[in-house]
Write a structure and sequence with these properties.
Elongation Factor Tu (Ef-tu), domain 3, elongated
């Protein structure tokens, strides 16, 4: 599932290095799970529990309620180990 980080602050170059709340060191934005990113697109792998009309019931989502969903892609058998 692709989604848009619509509530994240505007990204600036000062945010390329951030200190996560659970770490005592600064790390590059691409090595952490910060929602404040240069590209405001997020991705989550979720389990579809059911589909009822335009409503998709899912499990394992890690985004806020009301977050705009951009696209949904199935996981195919290719590349699975």
């Amino acid at each position: 599932m692709l989604f848009y980080f619509h509530e994240s602050p505007q990204f600036t170059h000062e945010l390329l290095v951030q200190t996560p709340p659970h770490r005592n060191e600064s790390l590059g934005v691409f090595s952490i799970c910060s929602p404040i990113r240069p590209n405001p697109i997020g991705v989550s792998v979720v389990e579809v529990l059911g589909v009822e009309g335009r409503i998709i019931r899912i499990k394992g989502l890690d985004m806020r309620d009301g977050t705009p969903v951009l696209d949904i892609k199935p996981v195919t058998g290719k590349g699975k180990t």
